Structures are given as structure tokens and as C-alpha cells.
Write the C-alpha cells for this entry.
Amino acid sequence: MTTKPENHDDVIDSRDVIARIEELVAIRTALEDAADEAREAYEYHNSDDTEEGPEWDELHKANGARVDWSETDEAKELNSLLLLAGQCEHVSDWEHGETLINEDYFTSYIEDLIDDAYEMPKEMNSGNWPYRHMTMDYAAAAEEAKVDYEEVDFEGQTFLIRSA
């Protein structure tokens, strides 16, 4: 089973969205195929279209399973993920791995990005005056960085993804 992306996650990798969609589509397709096979078997064995016999029972069971699945949380999840993917597929690295960042986590994400990508002057961490009074305004940096991102909705929660 793949990672299940959820709208309360801090970050989501697009590859997890794609993999989960593929997994859920495979489940749905298997149910549809089973219903099609049962219909073909019924039509082959019951030329008089009677609603009885093992083929009819299999057809009824397979159609019921397909309909029942369409009402499950997995079916709702698939629809939600397809909507998300539809908003993001134009992003150049969507297929290869693009990060969706929860809007509520964006400042922390930018803070980590700055800390990982940039080296602060040694004096900033020295504890000496006046450096001990200087701080990085990560919220302002995150706000400024938003120009490179676009917003997408995932089940009512806003996520940011690098613009194409």
C-alpha cells in the first residue's frame, strides 16, 4: 500500500499522489473488469435472459461490489486526489516529484529551506553583542517566497506548489 496523502499533511510528494491514484484506479478497474466478465458469462450462458442461475448470481454480486465500492472512502479519496492532480499536472516536475506544502506549514518549510541552503554568518550564532539581538524574519521571507508558488486546494486545505 502506498502513502496516503491527506489534507492535514505538512508536505506531500506528487509521486505519492500519483502512486495512490494508480493504486485506487487499479482497485476500481478490477471491480469493473469483474463485472464485465460476469456480464459476458451471463450473456453467453443465458440466451433467454433469465434472472436465475450461477451466472446471474455472479453478475449481481459483481455489479453490487462495483456499486458498493463507489460509495466507499477509497472512491471518495480517488475523486479528491484526481481533483488535486488536475490542478497540478501542468507543473513541470509533477511526474518526477514536486512538493506540495501545506499553507499552515509554509513558514516552517521556508525556514528549513533557508537553513539548509544558506550559511549564516558565524557572528549570528556567536552570542556576542549586537548579533544576539538579530533574528531572521522567516515569516517575511516566506511571504516573499510565495511569488514563486501557486495555491491549490486539497479537500478544503490550501497547499502551495512551485509555479510552472
Q: What stands out?
A: The radius of gyration is 25 Å.
